[in-house]
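Example record used in the benchmark description.
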Amino acid sequence: MKTFFYGLALFALALFIRVEYFSHTEVINPFSGDASAYMKYAENLDRHHIFSRDTQSASPAPDAYWAPGYPFFIVLSTRVAKFMGSNPYSTLMLTQALLGALVVLLTYLIAKLFLSHKLALSAALLSAFSPHLISMGNYILTESLFSFTLLLSLYLFMLLLERQKLGLAIGTGLSFGAAYMVNPVMFFSPLLLALWFSWRTPVLSKKVLVSMLLSFLVIVSAWSLRNFINVDANQSGSSDRVLANLIVGSHSDFYDIWRANPRDPNNPATLDAAEVQGSIPAFLNILGPRIQAEPAEFAHWYLLAKPYLLWSWDILIGQGDIHVFNVKYSLYQQSALASLSYSVMKSTHVIVFAFALFGMFFWLKNHHPQASVLYIALIYISAVYVVLQAEPRYSVPLRPEMYLAALFFLSEMLKVYKSKQGA
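Model output (structure tokens):
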């Protein structure tokens, strides 16, 4: 009963903060950049039942450049708005505020599985007051939905470790499938978790693991089959997006050049894209000699600088700080309490990140099951972004997992301290 009331209070607090942020923040052009593409997808889904960015023709050509989960979410929110007679944009933002509050609740429920009550509250409060999680929910971007679907999947998987029910296994796989449909970068997460808990820490039965993976792969296969059947070979696909990110991510000076002039024709990433003409092997043939010529610099970039960049504070592709799209003003400029929470979160960000890193020592030492779930997801998804494009915005959906990992480290350190005190 206590968990219920604390969870309800945390959910209400998080929702209040996010609604206040929406009410006291003005995004100058909320339909620019990536948001414009998502709205095009949603418009074609709603009007033509076709997944396509093309809005220039009466019969848009299907493509597979982005995943369909978030555009479907926009369509659903738009239809709810029409049914209720409310503003579609406001409805979408308030729905994302609701998702953000659910993320805070899920953070608390996960923490309760393996942390003390005080540390569980701390993890949830970090998620509730995270300026990045709050601001990202106020954009037409995938981060809020991906954060929710991924965290829900990890929570269900943790429950599966304890209960091993067939229905729960299927639900967990479907939840991972939903997360994949929002952001395919997490594709190998359930597969790695299944491998870990069938090999390194064998606590799940084969029947449970197979049921989870099959339900996940049904969704993945259905989307892949759609792309194979409906998408013409000359249309843009996910491999085009991978190549674009791979090119950008290979240049350590890309962000400095982009922020000076986003349309600089001499940006090396732009020149590479023109040279390779959409071919990943062609780009790898260019990248290989560059790495051989400067192995130390590329090793530093990929092994140290990019991981740190991914988890740093300032968003680079956008206005900067916690903002992707330009804002005229925000709650953090209008409320002293909000400004204080921002200052505290920013000043402690590096410490929290370091705690999460140090927690890997206790995870590897003890193979703690809940910590294993968190770190496998964090390490794998981070590694994908490090190989491709390490933009701080991409780590925002994983902030709850980072907070949980940091407090896991603190919990283990307290155990060590108490054991030495009692010795």
